[in-house]
Specification:
The chain is mainly alpha-helical and about 140 residues long. It has one domain. The chain has five helices and no strands. It is rod-shaped.
C-alpha cells in the first residue's frame, strides 16, 4: 500500500454513490471507517519503525563521524576527516543514509495524515447523508 493507492481508494470510498437509497449509504460508513482505521494503524506502525531505525542509524553515524566506530567500519568505508563536535550534527544530518530514512519518515507521516483526513471525511460523510435524508423528508412533506 502506498500513498497513490490510498488516494485511489479514497476516491472510491468517499462519494455517496446511491442517491436513490441514500439511507443505505450510512451503513456503508462503518465498513469504510474500519478499513481506513486499519490503513492508519498500519502506517503508524511503519512510522514508528522508521523512527526507531533513524535513531539507531543516527547513533551509528555519530560514532562514524566522531571517530568512535569500530576499525572494521573505517576499513570498509574510510573517513579521514577529523570532525569537530560542533560540526558533527551537520555531517550526520547531511549523510545520504540519514536523509533517505528521514524522507521515509516524512512519507509515512504524510500517509498517516492522509488517512486521518479521510477518516474525518468519512465522519462528515455521515452528516452529509443525514442532511440529504432530512432534505428528502422535507421535500416529501414529512417534516
Amino acid at each position: 500500500m502506498n500513498l497513490d493507492t490510498l488516494k485511489r481508494t479514497a476516491k472510491e470510498d468517499l462519494p455517496v454513490t446511491d442517491q436513490e437509497h441514500i439511507d443505505q449509504e450510512s451503513y456503508k460508513n462503518q465498513m469504510i471507517k474500519q478499513k481506513w482505521l486499519d490503513f492508519k494503524s498500519d502506517f503508524e506502525l511503519l512510522l514508528v519503525k522508521a523512527k526507531t531505525d533513524h535513531q539507531l542509524l543516527y547513533r551509528q553515524k555519530w560514532e562514524y563521524y566522531g571517530g568512535k566506530a569500530d576499525a572494521k567500519v573505517y576499513a570498509a568505508k574510510p573517513f579521514d576527516i577529523r570532525v569537530m563536535k560542533t560540526d558533527l550534527t551537520m555531517y550526520i544530518q547531511s549523510d545520504e543514509d540519514i536523509l533517505r530514512i528521514s524522507n521515509k519518515i516524512g512519507y509515512y507521516d504524510s500517509c498517516v495524515d492522509y488517512c486521518k483526513g479521510v477518516i474525518k471525511s468519512i465522519d462528515n460523510r455521515g452528516w452529509d447523508i443525514r442532511n440529504a435524508t432530512d432534505w428528502k423528508k422535507f421535500e416529501a412533506g414529512m417534516m
